[in-house]
Each structure stands twice: as structure tokens, then as C-alpha cells.
């Protein structure tokens, strides 16, 4: 199956929808796109280095956030499914499975839909779902903690990191965002962000120090800095 | 974030839901789980061999079918998004993006929800969305065609295969199924199935000849054999 050039019929319809968007161009640098030649080289080297182990359990559950403000819920759902945590209740048909719509135990979904969710409530949600979570706010941790935690989780298959950060540090549009981290490249000290806003940006590698700076920003809703969950 | 053993509270709730299921055990052999040590070895070798190129554009869009009978719709959505085909209409917020709920141009969604979808209508849907599609029914192609097409698409980033097959050949529960193919391992002649029923089976490698046999089965709804789209 291939892209077909005659898809210009769609362009006519687009002319009537000036305010709608088809993805955003990923600012590179500072990011390196996952599927670019450089991204594939980083992937292959990190795989060789043993810091893509977590990727193999995480990427089978990588998903698109189902609402523009559901980045926190989608990040949690990816990790809960990757850890094979049984929700203990049905999703659809006979199947038990974590879907964003089932993550309503710390904040009503209609509130998340309109305002997003805070770092503290994402921690609450992960715990409510049965995960063991440690949270690191940027004012109580340092970049070397993030590096150590990421290197360890990326080298194993039983823990995963979720980053809470501000997109501005990567020259990306938008503000606060959540996404799981899918791997680590030790040689260049870069982290692979599996961005759950897949309709906007593809997965991408970013310098870990810049990711730390993006975490070390204040969430205006809470007055506290962002950080990461491990 | 880790699995927490105290998640036994859920087990109590489970006792009351005897007919519900948390995943199925993947029969191995014939399949090899993507995240198993052998699966990771196959992946690394195929990556080295240049037949995982398509994986890098496909896996960023890998998704879970949103309904038990939406395997065809989910497979198409994964491939359309991987090919960066603009749907020309909004999904949510300002974003244009392919979601299964937008794939209603060849069969009404309520029909697909209750009965699934046929090979022919999946081809129709991919074309309707603007993709260039060639379809190969098992009675008009041979296993070497499948191998040649897969080897070529797995080595590039601008085409992807969707398989229409019967799960029974892999000792899996269920009947006819659709899923995209995420890579090829030439040395062992195995294909990586990115199974969209992620609540049931994880991604897995299968022998290509067995996949061909699973395609070479009759869909009782149409009376025609299954096959693949390229």
C-alpha cells in the first residue's frame, strides 16, 4: 500500500478548513526524528548498547492520545498495558484492557478533557490502577537522577518512565505535555520520546539535559515544577 | 513505573467476571513473540539485514483496534497514518488524522462493528482514503510473490503490507483477521505481524510459508480466498 499522488481531491476540501492542521514539522535540532537516517542510526547503536530493552515491551502498546488534552491519560495507558497490568474490569467485548476512558479514578474525564491533568494526578492514576510509581519533581531531583533512572529502565523490561515537560524547550508548539520515554542512547546522552500526540509529532530523540530543563519548568496550574515518573 | 504485586484487589473483582479475558497466551511455536529474547534477536538481525526499514515508519502509528471486529479498519488506519496520507477532514480539535471511525466510505460502521469487514471492502477503503493499493488474493498469487513484495516493502519506507489471514494456522483462537506486517527476517523467512488486537496477542514473528497458508483460506462470507494488500 502506497501513497497515491491523485489525493489532491482532499486539497480542495482543505481550502475550506483553514484552521485545521495536518501534523506539525518537528523542529530538528534539537530533536532527531525516530524514522530519519540519524534516528535509525541512534536506535541501532542504542540497541547494540543494551538500552533499548524497554522499547520492546513499550512500543507494542504505543498509542495516540484520543483527545487533544489526554496526553497524561494516554501515557499512563501505554505504560499500564506494557506492564501487563490487568485492569480487573472489561474494556470491550470480553476483553480486559486499559483504555484512557477507564482512567477516571483521580480526576473526572470531562475535567481532563477540557483542562488536561496535573503531574500529581497522573501519579495518583497510575497508583490507582495498581502500578508501583516513584515520582521525581524537578525541584527534588537532578539531571543525574533522571539519567540513572532512564539508563536502568531502558536496559530492562519491567519499568518505564513517563516525562512531564514543557514543549517549548524543544521549539515545539504547545505547552505542558506528558509522554513515555522509549529508550536511551548513552553515547550522545539522548532520550527517545514516544510522543502520544502522534497526530502532531512523530517519536523523536532529544538531548537528556534539554529534557531535564523542559521538566524543570513550573506548571502554572499547580505552581510546582514538572518532572518524571519511574 | 513498575508492576505492583498488591494488585490483588483486582483479582476479587475478576472472580465475578468469569467470562472476561486478560489477553491470550501466544502459541509459540509457530510464532515468536516480538519482545522475547529470540524475537529481539530476529529483530536485530533483520535490522542489520536492511529489512526493518518499513518498521520505522509503521510502528509510530501502530494502534489497538477500537472494537473487537475492527481489525480491518485499524490495519488501514495504521498504514494510512504511516504513509502520511492527509484525510482532508478533521478528526478532533484542529487535527486531521485517520481514525477507524472515519473509515466509513465502503461499509457502514455499524455493519463492520457486528460482522467485521471483507478483504474486498478493505481494499475499497484504502483506495477511498487516497492510497495506491494492489491486492493479491491467494488464488491469483503464490508464496514467492508475497515474499518478494514483503522483502521490498520491508526494505523501504513508502509501502506497507496488510495481511488477511486465518488465525487457526498459528494455533491462535479466532478466525479471519487483518493486521499490518512490520518487517521481514530473510535468514529464517519470517514475517513480523503487528497484530492490531493488542489486547489479545502481542506482535509476533511467524514463518512466511505458514502466513501464506493462513492467507490461502476461504472467507465464508465471500466464498473467496484471503490474501494481502501491498
TrEMBL record, chains A, B:
<keyword id="KW-0104">Cadmium</keyword>
<dbReference type="GO" id="GO:0098849">
    <property type="term" value="P:cellular detoxification of cadmium ion"/>
</dbReference>
<keyword id="KW-0808">Transferase</keyword>
<dbReference type="InterPro" id="IPR038765">
    <property type="entry name" value="Papain-like_cys_pep_sf"/>
</dbReference>
<dbReference type="GO" id="GO:0046872">
    <property type="term" value="F:metal ion binding"/>
</dbReference>
<dbReference type="GO" id="GO:0046938">
    <property type="term" value="P:phytochelatin biosynthetic process"/>
</dbReference>
<feature type="domain" description="Peptidase C83">
    <location>
        <begin position="16"/>
        <end position="230"/>
    </location>
</feature>
<dbReference type="GO" id="GO:0016756">
    <property type="term" value="F:glutathione gamma-glutamylcysteinyltransferase activity"/>
</dbReference>
<protein>
    <recommendedName>
        <fullName>glutathione gamma-glutamylcysteinyltransferase</fullName>
        <ecNumber>2.3.2.15</ecNumber>
    </recommendedName>
</protein>
<dbReference type="InterPro" id="IPR040409">
    <property type="entry name" value="PCS-like"/>
</dbReference>
<dbReference type="GO" id="GO:0010273">
    <property type="term" value="P:detoxification of copper ion"/>
</dbReference>
<dbReference type="InterPro" id="IPR007719">
    <property type="entry name" value="PCS_N"/>
</dbReference>
<keyword id="KW-0479">Metal-binding</keyword>
<dbReference type="InterPro" id="IPR038156">
    <property type="entry name" value="PCS_N_sf"/>
</dbReference>
<dbReference type="Pfam" id="PF05023">
    <property type="entry name" value="Phytochelatin"/>
</dbReference>
